[in-house]
Automatic annotation (TrEMBL), chains A, D:
It is found in: Cell membrane. This is ABC transporter permease. It is a multi-pass membrane protein. Belongs to the binding-protein-dependent transport system permease family.
From TrEMBL, chains C, E:
It comes from the Bacteria. SUPFAM superfamilies: P-loop containing nucleoside triphosphate hydrolases. Pfam families: ABC_tran. Belongs to the ABC transporter superfamily. This is Nitrate/sulfonate/bicarbonate ABC transporter ATP-binding protein. Residues 2-225 form the ABC transporter domain. Keywords: ATP-binding, Nucleotide-binding, Transport. PANTHER family: ALIPHATIC SULFONATES IMPORT ATP-BINDING PROTEIN SSUB 2, TAURINE IMPORT ATP-BINDING PROTEIN-RELATED. GO terms for molecular function: ATP binding; ATP hydrolysis activity. Gene3D superfamilies: P-loop containing nucleotide triphosphate hydrolases.
Length: 246, 292, 237, 246, 237
């Protein structure tokens, strides 16, 4: 509840800054339209925006799910196998360092212009932060717990399951929060590179037609979406972490 | 010297020959100009930035200009770089699409959002098809790759002097439907646009004079001018540019400042009839002759 | 019933303690005392085959010549409870880590015997220091191991609870080989079948009372042993 | 040393996978050129690539420095002021979700076409992971330390300085590792927003011309750069954390 | 020299302890004993104005009617050393947190008096349990506060070190108002000017020996008091 209110307050503040920029700098409306104009466009084009937003939401949801899943699995792999660690970590960094934009055109050539390429983009973009954060957590298990587990005759797998993973949950939480913010970008980049639907597509289309107001309406909806996702994930993670130790 | 910034529509390529040659041969300097040439990532941006006064000139596309003016951008065409359409509907040579009428149910890729639907709709209309009969896919900059890899059946927005050569180099033959042969009014593919409220007419006139001189040089010395273009930067020296250079030469506007008012009036009417603009703007809202 | 195995520790740790030989009699409670920082915890870690910070050269062998790892339960000096697991889950951790069925009834029973029946479903953060220590004790008692190492297991408990816990541990660890590190001479005098004092100069043994452990604290014999220990300890550091 | 060796092994593995793909799928070279071809292009164009790479390295360095700085400052602001927290966090999430290309004209309008706009992009892109990770760390200070500091009569500022910040250093380390990987992407995206120099420019140029081999050469150089940066940061962070507690 | 201020705690904590009144005489050592989990730590946290998990209704007032916060030093039940700071830095933490110049000489002097001169530049991870507790003690002694709350400060120490630490603390905290929570009746009998036992039914006082503290442990009077405390504690839980 408070979080929702905070989100709302933040939105108001953003609006105020935006309006302030308009007043102070009075940029041309084809570069930065006024909030009022964008609001009007948003309302008028609500059906259009809604239709495209649904597609993006769907892609983001799938991307978030699979990206988190793969990230968790990879982090666990890395944490359990020194061999995997040796080879995979630099590759991970490398793969991440190759800008998705650069790979996106090629990916779309392989995967087509359907939903798959966008989901893959979202997965790719959140994969690294999730993996990296969770892995860091898994490698920072307090030594005392590990000693204890060792004397108890635990297998590595069970130590992982009962001690290292629960101890790394706060770090995974940090990773998930990053993922909540990045997944929408991933999907939009995917749409940008090649699509016939989605908010990213709508943005490009509007931009190409010099309909800056419509573009900003789409940008705002995307931003609101990400913000909502972030607030939800943050609230969920915080509450879970608080609850589980009391 | 007077400093001015020119925003290109895309990375430097043979379409920009007159600018490069003018720079290299010192024609801008002759006109007491110091020209900075900047390439953007998104071709939709330069007109906006020119309208905002961030550059004296931007290179744009005529069909887009009509829309941009209707969207309220303070822009006018002040010169012409390429005076014929370059855009074409591109398919693979062995494609079953033999006429725009065969597009029904196909995927068509495009890159620059804007008037593609209008252009496509116009060339399909004689065949009894509308834009709803095809699936439009934004393929961004992968026009020829998306076609060659079979992800789309055709692309609109390919440049006849460029994508065809590119596909040939990759060993895949392409086939063009020339829009102006499919019932579209002819238009200027690449134009210079500027903000009429901010511009320095004299400076633009001098700029156009320099490019006019460069264009004449290019026509007179096609081989030498290619060498000049190629040697300005190592990344320009490749097979594709060499081929495209030859195909682009005949299309440069020989009189960059000259206005063909009828061409712009016809296109504006065509857009109105296609339902893409709400009204018909008078020609003097769209173009101006800076030498007047 | 699990029965203990005798162990002999011989060796030295460079910079910590000189060559010594510490016998742990099968089925008996051996108490280890000594000044703070002398190396008691380090010795326990060596026996438990845990990483220690010293160079130890020597042997830690069981009478039956079988390897020791897997036969030892170790209660560390700090409680080390998992903060996200309930008291009950903490107590049954060993079984879960070995993939066995956790004996919840036994766990609940032991928890109620240490006075924490009402706290079984709380998280460690909601416990007092002494309560946490008792949970760690129960966790160790749940491990059914022939050798049990206890590092100051009763230090955070009041006298009465401490006595009860001693009795409970002695009852439940009957027959096991127990090594108890403690700072409380009267505790050693009460439960020890053998008592050793570790100091920088080596290991010294003190004769335990003859009465069967656990002994009454105020039994004259126990008091004498306690006194003897005190004076030994006073000289040790 | 081992890290370098690992990086090398990883690079070899990547090459093997790549060559394998070529053998199995034999994709046309405009989709995936062979390692040999790319190596050849890389060698032939070494002067070109080197020149552009230098620019990018410079942008990355500046971006990393300022992004980390701003991220640290913001995280501290957020951690100390509940008001800032209420408002700024959702805005942060929102700001991340706005695709840069929507902002590109605005940025260019304000910052021009020079290096500044690229550095700003690099800063923007690493700002969020650094802020987010460090902030999470700052909010997770063990309660016992805070109680102790309170009874000692500490001001909030000094608690921050002597307790919360040192306690959050491992989290900041996680953030820095992410930043090392993201900063090059930021610079490249910045170059895409409008540039005439840098690896990102080169990539787009090559991509626009279907010179996939040159694009891959540039991508590889960028990847190697990021990998080196990541390995260096990872090694630094790990060693620092190990040292400071022993 | 800083002198103590008298404090009176009156009130009750729902579900923990009934209405009670605990007087802390100015300049004296008051000892608090009681079964594990009865609420001793909670009471200390209430006095130190730290968040506690209970509903406390009552008053905690100083004789001089000045506010208490800022006049209290609190040594918690666990050592709470900062793992990234050296022993010396941990010990001078208070000064740094208040923005004062850290008195390093005094710190080094105190560290050598608790036997940790050689450990001043080590990190806490390299210390034994008892060494860590002594560092926490020194950190508390470095705080120059009129009221000092000690929660089982000597629990991890061997008998000899413990006695030395008690003497050191009594010397350095001369004139302060000290509240000491302990589980060791002989400790209370040795240092207490007033001794209280907290139980679920309330607070009971036990007369301390008449001799000036610290008393000899084996002084008959001290032994008697210890014995009396033992029997009281046995009945308490
Ligand atoms: N954070 C908490 N939340 C809920 N209950 C708590 C919390 N902290 C302590 N308790 C409960 O309050 C009671 C008193 O705890 P407290 O720590 O004051 O005991 P204590 O007398 O100091 O015990 P000990 O001698 O074991 O340290 C205990 O029953 C404990 O379970
Ligand atoms: N990780 C470590 N690195 C370096 N030195 C260590 C480490 N752990 C302990 N020490 C040192 O080794 C010595 C022995 O430590 P140990 O913990 O075995 O003492 P102890 O006898 O158990 O003391 P206590 O009664 O205080 O628990 C101490 O001087 C301590 O400072
Ligand atoms: Mg120890
Ligand atoms: Mg307590």
């Amino acid at each position: 509840m408070t979080r929702l209110r905070n989100g709302f307050a933040a939105a108001l503040l953003l609006l105020a800054i935006w309006q302030g920029l308009i007043w102070v700098l009075s940029p041309p409306k084809f570069i930065l339209p006024s909030p009022a104009l964008v609001a009007e466009t948003m309302w008028k084009s609500r059906a259009l925006i809604g239709e495209h937003a649904l597609i993006t939401i769907y892609e983001v949801g799938l991307g978030l799910f699979f990206g988190t899943l793969f990230g968790i699995v990879t982090a666990i792999q890395l944490a359990t196998s020194p061999a995997a660690r040796t080879l995979l970590r630099p590759i991970l960094a490398f793969s991440q360092a190759i800008p998705v934009f650069a790979l996106a055109p090629i990916l779309t050539l392989w995967l087509g212009y359907g939903m798959l390429s966008k989901v893959v983009m979202a997965v790719l973009i959140i994969y690294f932060p999730v993996t990296s954060a969770f892995f860091d957590g898994l490698m920072r298990t307090p030594a005392g717990y590990l000693d204890l587990a060792r004397t108890m005759g635990a297998t590595n797998r069970r130590i992982l399951w009962h001690i290292r993973i629960p101890a790394a949950v706060p770090s995974l939480g940090s990773g998930l929060k990053l993922a909540a913010v990045y997944a929408p970008i991933g999907a939009v980049i995917g749409e940008w590179v090649g699509a016939s639907k989605g908010l990213g597509y709508l943005m490009l289309l509007a931009n190409g037609r010099a309909k800056t107001d419509l573009m900003f309406a789409a940008v705002l909806v995307l931003g609101a979406l990400s913000m909502a996702l972030y607030i939800a994930v943050d609230a969920g993670v915080t509450r879970y972490l608080k609850r589980r130790e009391s | 010297a007077d400093k001015m910034t020119v925003l290109l529509d895309w990375f430097i390529n043979p379409d920009h020959g007159p600018l490069i040659v003018a720079e290299e041969l010192g024609y801008f300097a002759e006109q007491n100009l110091e020209v900075e040439i900047v390439a953007p990532a998104d071709p939709a941006d330069p007109p906006k930035l020119a309208a905002a006064g961030k550059a004296e000139l931007a290179i744009g596309y005529q069909p887009q200009l009509h829309l941009q003016i209707h969207e309220g951008l303070p822009l006018k065409r002040v010169g012409t770089l390429v005076a014929t359409p370059l855009n074409c509907l591109l398919v693979l040579n062995d494609s079953p699409i033999k006429s725009p009428g065969d597009l029904k149910g196909k995927k068509v890729g495009f890159s620059v959002a804007g008037v593609e639907e209008a252009l496509l709709g116009a060339i399909m209309a004689p065949h009894g098809l509308t834009i709803d009969d095809i699936e439009l896919v934004n393929v961004n900059w992968s026009l020829s790759p998306s076609l060659m890899s079979g992800q789309v059946d055709a692309v609109i927005g390919a440049f006849r002097n460029f994508e065809l050569n590119q596909m040939e180099i990759e060993g895949v033959d392409g086939r063009c439907f020339y829009l102006e042969e499919e019932g579209l009014p002819s238009y200027d593919e690449l134009i210079y646009v500027a903000n009429p409220d901010l511009m320095d007419k004299d400076m633009i006139a001098r700029f156009l004079a320099a490019t006019e001189k460069a264009t004449q040089y290019i026509i007179n010395h096609p081989r030498k001018s290619w060498l000049i273009f190629r040697d300005t930067s190592p990344e320009l020296n490749d097979e594709l540019n060499a081929k495209a250079w030859v195909d682009t030469l005949p299309r440069f506007a020989l009189r960059p400042a000259a206005v063909d008012a009828g061409r712009y009036a016809r296109f504006e009417t065509f857009l109105k009839d296609a339902g893409l603009v709400p009204s018909v703007n008078p020609v003097d809202m769209i173009v101006m002759d800076v030498t007047e | 019933m699990t029965t203990g195995v005798g162990i002999t520790v011989t060796g030295q740790a460079t910079g910590l303690f000189p060559a010594l030989s510490l016998p742990l009699r099968a089925g008996a409670w051996t108490c280890l005392l000594g000044p703070s920082g002398v190396g008691k915890t380090t010795l326990l870690r060596l026996i438990a085959d845990l990483p220690a910070h010293v160079d130890f050269s020597g042997d830690i062998t069981a009478e039956d010549d079988q390897p020791l790892p897997g036969r030892i339960a170790y209660m560390a000096q700090s409680a080390l409870l998992l903060p996200w697991a309930s008291v009950l889950d903490n107590v049954t951790l060993g079984a879960k880590l070995r993939g066995n069925r956790a004996d919840r009834d036994r766990a609940l029973n032991l928890l109620s015997r240490v006075g924490l029946a009402d706290h079984a479903h709380k998280k460690p953060a909601a416990l007092s220091g002494g309560q946490r220590q008792r949970v760690a004790l129960v966790r160790t008692l749940m491990e059914d191991r022939p050798v049990v190492l206890l590092d100051e297991p009763f230090s955070a408990l009041d006298a009465k609870t401490r006595a009860e816990m001693q009795e409970l541990a002695m009852e439940l660890l009957q027959g096991r080989t127990v090594l108890l590190v403690t700072h409380d001479p009267s505790e050693a005098a009460r439960v020890g079948h053998a008592i050793h004092v570790l100091s920088e100069t080596g290991l010294e043994s003190v004769a335990p009372p003859n009465a069967p452990a656990p002994r009454a604290v105020d039994d004259p014999e126990t008091l004498t042993a306690t006194g003897a220990l005190y004076s030994k300890l006073r000289g040790a550091a």
